[in-house]
Amino acid sequence: MNGEFAFVGRSNVGKSSLLNAILGKKVAYVSKNPGKTRSINYFLIDNKFYFVDLPGYGYARASKKDREEWRKVIDRYFEERNWNMRILFSLIDSRHELMESDEQLLEWTQMLGISPVILLTKVDKLSNSEKAKQYKYYENVLADYGIKKIIPCSSISKEGVDLIWNLINESMREV
Ligand SMILES: Nc1nc2c(ncn2[C@@H]2O[C@H](COP(=O)(O)OP(=O)(O)O)[C@@H](O)[C@H]2O)c(=O)[nH]1
Ligand SMILES: [Mg+2]
């Protein structure tokens, strides 16, 4: 299948919820127990491309072994699938500052020559002025990582969902 769109972020960032909002139905498991998924889930969309749900990172109670395991799984994904990846969506919680684990991921993708689209999640929890402030903050703090775009989004208000689909459709039109 030609083309895949991968989603990655800290565990509990709202990845499964956003995937469900993007797809408009419940396909991704929304967890009450963060930090548990270690496998990669592929969802075939419209018989045309895949959504790839990558395991979450940055779980506070993860052991060193868990972290190494995560790194191995993602490393292998990038190595084997980068050729087919149209967009890497990197999710970050809009309410917080950039965390070290996010920084590490972005340093890694930069090294691999991948330019992610940043999805700032849970913006329904912010006022308009807080949202503008966090957007500016992330624009500045991510300026050197070769980011394609920053999109504020929410699986509750559905903000950002149309923009995400536009990017996906655009990139599927390019050959
Ligand atoms: N307010 C708000 N809560 C969200 C949003 N997305 C996810 N959540 C909540 O955040 C928690 C983690 O969500 P989940 O989708 O399982 O995160 P994942 O671990 O990244 O897959 C759950 O309690 C969700 O209900 C959002 O857009 N807005
Ligand atoms: Mg999840």
Structure report:
It is a single chain. With 175 residues, this protein is an alpha/beta fold. It has one domain: 3-Layer(aba) Sandwich (Rossmann fold), CATH 3.40.50. The chain is globular, with a radius of gyration of 15 Å. A hairpin with a 3-residue loop joins strand 2 (41-45) and strand 3. The protein is 38% helix and 19% strand. The model has no long low-confidence stretch (mean pLDDT 91). The chain has helices at residues 15-23, 64-81, 100-111, 128-141, 161-173, and strands spanning 4-9, 41-45, 49-53, 85-93, 117-121, 149-152. The protein is built from five helices and six strands. Strands 2-3-1-4-5-6 form a six-stranded mixed β-sheet, sandwiched between helices. The structure holds guanosine-5'-diphosphate and magnesium ion. Magnesium ion binds next to helix 1. Magnesium ion binds at residues 15-16, 31, 37.
Which characteristics define this entry?
6 strands, globular, Rossmann fold, six-stranded mixed sheet, binds magnesium ion, 175 residues, 38% helix, binds guanosine-5'-diphosphate
How many structural units, i.e. domains?
Answer: 1
Name the helicity range: 25-40%
Number of strands: 6
Helix tally?
5
**Strand residues, percent:** 15-25%
Structural class: alpha/beta
Order of helices and strands: EHEEHEHEHEH
Which ligands, by name, code or SMILES, are bound? guanosine-5'-diphosphate, magnesium ion
Fourth-level CATH superfamily? P-loop containing nucleotide triphosphate hydrolases
Q: CATH topology, anyone?
A: Rossmann fold
- CA distance, first residue to last residue: 14 Å
